[in-house]
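Shipment paperwork, digital attachment
Item: protein structure file
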Amino acid sequence: MEYKNIIKAKFIERPNRFIAVCDINGKEERVHVKNTGRCKELLVKGAEVFLEESDNAERKTKYSLVSVYKGDNLVNMDSQVPNVMVYEALKEGRIAEIGVPDVVKREVKYGSSRFDIYFEEGERKGFIEVKGVTLENDGVAAFPDAPTERGTKHINELITAKKEGYEAYIFFAVQMKKVNELIPNGKTDPDFAEAIKRAYAAGVGVIAYDSVVDENSIKMDKPIPVKNIE
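Attachment content:
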């Protein structure tokens, strides 16, 4: 995924989940944050961030915050891109664990959930739930960064789909490089971590890939191991 009209800025503060105040060439500007997660370890005062300038004159905010440097590692924070990356990679056959489906659709309803991706290949039919990951510590990525009842609900629905004959996957799209593995964040959300273990035991695939991130783009890259799920 590529961005247009990217500019560099400094993060000052985040008064609420949707808005950040940034310094753009010495001028304070309120910008839209494209991630409603906590991101406290990323959005620290003085951090270098990258903003995308909107061409919509009707918007209340002129810019959207899409990425931030954590040390020397650029982390994409756009919560909309993981679904796009996985959808495109699946259509291009770049997810070896799943293969090359004949049919790929987004936002398909199942039970009381709406899964991010549905696919078919011959007799195979399956669902994929995508989770964007921005939390990292010492090369270990973790999800979630805040409790997520919705995420646990999705996993339970994947287990049901698997029992009913569908293939089912949870896909962690890590929005950065320099990560060696991913773990469920049991300290933040023990229910989610336990749900992942139940899903894995039930045959739900648990996949994680990292991403190549630069100022103007993000692209899903290589698989990384998922630990603490057995």
